[in-house]
């Protein structure tokens, strides 16, 4: 199974994924951003974009990489990855379904003011214009398709440990 932790940049997906891994025996964290970083290494050959998810190879590579990793390590993959474009999510989730891989799609949510405060106050990554740029895109996706497609876990007034516990409790 794959536990996909969606939500915008700065909401706590990576932190939550590590805590979920501690709580869920046999689970492994797989960050699909690494697939994007690999594609960035061949960037001169790819068209310019502000987000590697826009490159057509990224989505099927995420599916195939996750499938092979899951076949190799077994258990559950916890995947913290923002996907705010519905077409991209349909391509990824459909590809995983075609391989018979069940996906539990959860969205970590925080109110926009909370997100901005977290991003601006991040002591590890520092304030990030890239992350701030996605707050409004997330709000749009949440309103139009994302919250209807996934189980929403509100992180606004919860600690990372509480969010991770709620994620694990939501699993079959």
UniProtKB/TrEMBL annotation:
<keyword id="KW-0547">Nucleotide-binding</keyword>
<dbReference type="GO" id="GO:0005524">
    <property type="term" value="F:ATP binding"/>
</dbReference>
<protein>
    <submittedName>
        <fullName>ATP-binding protein</fullName>
    </submittedName>
</protein>
<keyword id="KW-0067">ATP-binding</keyword>
<dbReference type="InterPro" id="IPR027417">
    <property type="entry name" value="P-loop_NTPase"/>
</dbReference>
């Amino acid at each position: 199974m794959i536990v996909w932790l969606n939500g915008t940049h700065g909401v706590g997906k990576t932190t939550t994924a590590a805590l979920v891994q501690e709580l869920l025996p046999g689970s492994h964290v797989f960050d699909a951003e690494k697939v994007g970083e690999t594609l960035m290494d061949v960037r001169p050959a790819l068209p310019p974009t502000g987000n590697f998810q826009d490159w057509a190879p990224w989505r099927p590579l995420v599916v195939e990489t996750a499938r092979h990793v899951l076949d190799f390590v077994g258990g559950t993959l916890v995947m913290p990855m923002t996907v705010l474009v519905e077409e991209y999510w349909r391509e990824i989730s459909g590809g995983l379904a075609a391989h018979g891989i069940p996906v539990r799609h959860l969205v970590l949510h925080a109110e926009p003011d909370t997100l901005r405060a977290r991003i601006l106050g991040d002591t590890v990554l520092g304030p990030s214009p890239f992350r701030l740029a996605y707050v409004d895109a997330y709000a749009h996706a949440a309103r139009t398709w994302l919250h209807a497609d996934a189980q929403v876990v509100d992180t606004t007034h919860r600690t990372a440990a509480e969010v991770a516990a709620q994620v694990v409790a939501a699993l079959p």
